[in-house]
């Protein structure tokens, strides 16, 4: 199926179906050296090539999913440990701009589930539902009660709803953050990491991962002591 296809934009693998719950990580420009990303991609592709020989389709998808998770964990570990990374999100005013932008889009572009603002990157989980509508390019509709925000789009959006949401979120916050920091140039790395959350069990695991990232990185001893994380649900 076309929706199952993983494709590359620049260096990271992506899978963006029409509607889904997404786990996203986006980072500051220059937060990782290009040689690290290139090496990670090469390792990823070698293992994908190896797994492609599996005949059982169910087993193949399972192993590819596991491999995708391992890729991200290595990627995130580098982000937490890379000493020369810019840490602009450690500035409370900058972090607040990002939080406000994320919350502003809740109920408009997506249903917000969780986030964590780290010194050089952001973890974000939200749900989006796609509805065909040939008369408009993009109309955001909220109905009560609802489990997901419904996004009306034309066929021109296809698999790129998430790309559009992230482009708008990162574009607006980059301008405001640069003003606070009295700087110019790229604020966010152009590309983001994204992963489709497939079930409730994985959701619970990823939300726990997001909230506990500051603990894992050695910034606090308890995630409740981190100012810049949020979860919609009781964990």
What does this structure look like?
With 235 residues, the protein is α+β, with helices and mostly antiparallel strands. The chain has one domain (2-218): Transposase IS200-like (Alpha-Beta Plaits), CATH 3.30.70. Helix content is 40%, strand content 21%. The chain has 5 helices and 9 strands, in the order βββαααββββαβαβ. The strands form 2 sheets. Strands 3, 4, 5, 6, 7, 8 and 9 form a 7-stranded mixed sheet that branches. α1 (34-51) packs antiparallel against α2 and α3 (92-104) runs antiparallel to α4. The longest helix is centred in the first third of the chain and has 25 residues, at 57-81. It starts with 6 loop residues before the first strand and ends with a strand.
Topology at a glance:
Elements: E1 7-9, E2 12-14, E3 20-27, H1 34-51, H2 57-81, H3 92-104, E4 111-117, E5 121-132, E6 138-141, E7 150-153, H4 161-181, E8 193-197, H5 200-216, E9 229-231
Parallel strand pairs: 5-7
Antiparallel strand pairs: 1-2, 3-5, 3-8, 4-5, 4-9, 6-7
Structural class: alpha+beta
Unreliable stretches (pLDDT < 50, length at least 5) are 1-14, 130-159
CATH class: Alpha Beta
CATH architecture: 2-Layer Sandwich
The total domain count is 1
Largest sheet: 7 strands, mixed
Would you count the extended β strands for me? 9
What average pLDDT do the residues reach? Answer: 79
Proportion in helices? 40-55%
**Could you state the oligomeric state of the chains shown?**
single chain
Q: N-to-C terminal Cα separation, in Å?
A: 35 Å
CATH topology group: Alpha-Beta Plaits
Overall shape: globular
Strand content: 15-25%
Number of helices: 5
Radius of gyration: 18 Å
Corresponding CATH superfamily? Transposase IS200-like
What's the order of the H and E elements? Answer: EEEHHHEEEEHEHE
């Amino acid at each position: 199926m076309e929706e199952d296809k993983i494709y590359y934009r620049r260096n990271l693998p992506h899978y963006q179906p029409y509607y889904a719950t997404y786990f996203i990580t986006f980072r500051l420009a220059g937060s990782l050296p290009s040689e690290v990303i290139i090496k990670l991609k090469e390792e990823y592709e070698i293992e994908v090539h190896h797994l492609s020989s599996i005949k059982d389709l169910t087993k193949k998808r399972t192993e590819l999913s596991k491999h995708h998770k391992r890729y991200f964990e290595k990627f995130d570990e580098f982000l937490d440990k890379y000493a020369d990374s810019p840490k602009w999100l450690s500035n409370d005013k900058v972090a607040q701009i990002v939080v406000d932008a994320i919350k502003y889009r809740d109920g408009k572009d997506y249903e917000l589930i969780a986030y964590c603002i780290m010194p050089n990157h952001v973890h974000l989980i939200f749900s989006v539902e796609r509805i065909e509508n040939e008369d408009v390019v993009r109309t955001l509709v909220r109905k009560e009660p609802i489990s997901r925000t419904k996004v009306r789009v034309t066929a021109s959006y296809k698999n790129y709803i998430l790309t559009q949401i992230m482009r708008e979120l990162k574009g607006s916050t980059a301008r405001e953050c640069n003003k606070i920091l009295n700087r110019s140039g790229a604020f966010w790395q152009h590309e983001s990491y994204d992963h489709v959350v497939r079930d409730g069990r994985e959701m619970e695991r990823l939300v726990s991962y997001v909230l506990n990232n500051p603990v894992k990185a050695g910034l606090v001893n308890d995630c409740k002591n981190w100012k810049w994380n949020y979860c919609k649900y009781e964990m």
